[in-house]
Design a protein that fits this description.
With 154 residues, the chain is an alpha+beta fold. Helices cover 22% and strands 42% of the residues.
Amino acid sequence: MSLIAIGLAASLSLAASPVSADAEDKAVLAATQAFFDGLEAGDPAAMRAAALPNIPMMALSTKPDGVVDVRRFAFEDSFGKKVTLGLKEWMWSPVVVRRGALATVTGPFEITRDGKTVHCGINIFTLAKSEGAWKVASVSWTAEPDACPELRKR
């Protein structure tokens, strides 16, 4: 397990070199980076190239009455045709956990649209090594509009 700083902002490039990351951790992060490069570019084909076919996605948000809304959908149903432009997302203090051909990347994030914060939360990417390359296998996140100050302290 490695703690690795990764910036997923406007350029969505790695913010800092990993302190103790090995080549496989770097490859896991590169696959995650490629997925977000496609998001920032508004290019579903680039996102698709960084992922396994039709990956599952899940977003959790809490309604004002405290009920947790769990939305599950396939990549193609949401991002597959068109990606909203003007989005910037960055994740900090990610943790990579890897065993064999399975890896996760988890960390707090903030997403903005046209410079205005939409929400913060926690991202969880699952990746699989397929045919010698790491590919995003699923993405889950929380959408917490009021959590940014707390999460920024991490």
